[in-house]
Design goal:
This protein is of the alpha+beta class. It folds into three domains: 62 residues, Uridine Diphospho-n-acetylenolpyruvylglucosamine Reductase, domain 2; 117 residues, Uridine Diphospho-n-acetylenolpyruvylglucosamine Reductase, domain 3, CATH 3.30.465.10; 114 residues, CO dehydrogenase flavoprotein, C-terminal domain (Enolase-like, domain 1), CATH 3.30.390. Helix content is 36%, strand content 27%. It is built from twelve helices and 13 strands. The strands form three sheets. The chain has a five-stranded antiparallel sheet with strand order 5-6-9-7-8. A four-stranded mixed sheet has the order 1-2-4-3, covered by helices on one side. Helix 10 packs antiparallel against helix 11. The relative contact order is 0.10.
């Protein structure tokens, strides 16, 4: 077992030790040894944002995960799309497997932050933040997350993203777990049209999180009836959530123009968010409703024009 150690070359009044494990077992062994004094890092964009914002203190030890080849890449099986946690956002936003079977995620990864950030940031880091803009898109695709966690030995855990977010909200999240990958299930679109969209409002492109992010996915049959409706919202430092009342408004029903106004009003009530110096809770709720209404109107009329 070989393990490389290097000292950060970045001038810093608080220099840290950077570890380069050869595999996941080594990475977890180092984390077990140094605990809260060590942090996992891949693209590094999340940690940089947290350090600059004073959200977390700089760690004495950084454990690089980008040295572990098994955590990168996108593969297709008969029923699933498998995305390695260290796959760059740029790669996810250019991959045809994801475009064909995870269209909302594909669109999200093309619009998270600035291009220079997407070249460096990983989808795993975006998820591990628990507030990343990819999370609403993963919610509407019913994604599952594959983790390795530290026990007496390495435990492999699979969780639906909804369940994982519930764990995060309850404060029971393991700080030692490594996200290994994301799995999207393929779904048949036979005799139906898939409608998907991703919308966000932010202060600027680079490191600041979006103020509001919404994601939408549904099937529409030739008569205009909705099924398999999934709607999610998030943004800022809030935890993303499914908007169940908005989903119920559409599920099993035929599209009509009044739905546009209704979904905007329901989202305003359904979306549990927060206020901060940049935006009030009411602003975020109204914006989520407006983004959903505009996205639904555009998607439906685009579908009509293609017929």
């Amino acid at each position: 077992m070989e393990m490389n150690i290097e000292t950060s070359r970045i001038p810093d009044p608080f220099p840290c030790q950077v570890w380069e494990p050869a595999d996941m077992e080594e990475a977890m062994m180092i984390k077990r040894q140094y605990g809260a004094n060590a942090a996992f890092v891949a693209g590094g964009t999340l940690l940089r944002t947290q350090w600059e914002g004073g959200i977390v203190s700089k760690h004495e030890h950084l454990i690089r995960l980008d040295t572990i080849a098994d955590l990168r890449g996108i593969d297709e099986s008969e029923r699933h799309i498998h995305i390695g946690a260290l796959t760059r956002l740029r790669e996810c936003g250019a991959d045809m497997y994801i475009a064909n079977h995870g269209a909302t995620l594909y669109e999200a990864c093309r619009h998270i932050a600035a291009p220079s950030i997407r070249n460096q940031a990983t989808i795993g880091g975006n998820i591990a933040s628990a507030v990343g803009d990819a999370i609403p898109a993963l919610l509407v695709h019913n994604a599952s997350l594959h983790w390795a966690d530290i026990g007496s030995e390495v435990d492999l855990i699979q969780q639906d993203i909804v369940d994982w977010l519930d764990v995060v909200k309850s404060g029971r999240r393991s700080l030692h777990a490594i996200l290994m990958g994301i799995v999207l299930e393929k779904q048949s679109t036979e005799h139906q049209q898939e409608i998907t969209f991703f919308r966000k409002i932010g202060r600027r492109e680079a490191f600041t999180p979006s103020l509001v992010t919404v994601a939408f996915r549904a099937m529409v049959d030739p008569l205009g009836y909705f099924s398999q409706v999934r709607i999610a919202a998030g943004g800022g430092s809030g935890i993303a959530m499914r908007l169940s009342r908005c989903e119920q408004l559409l599920e099993g029903n035929r599209y009509h123009a009044e739905m546009i106004t209704s979904i905007a009003l329901l989202a305003n009530e359904d979306f549990v968010t927060y206020s901060d110096p940049f935006a009030s809770e009411q602003y975020r709720q109204q914006t989520a409703g407006n983004l959903l209404a505009a996205g639904l109107w555009e998607s439906i009329h685009s579908q009509i024009e293609r017929r």
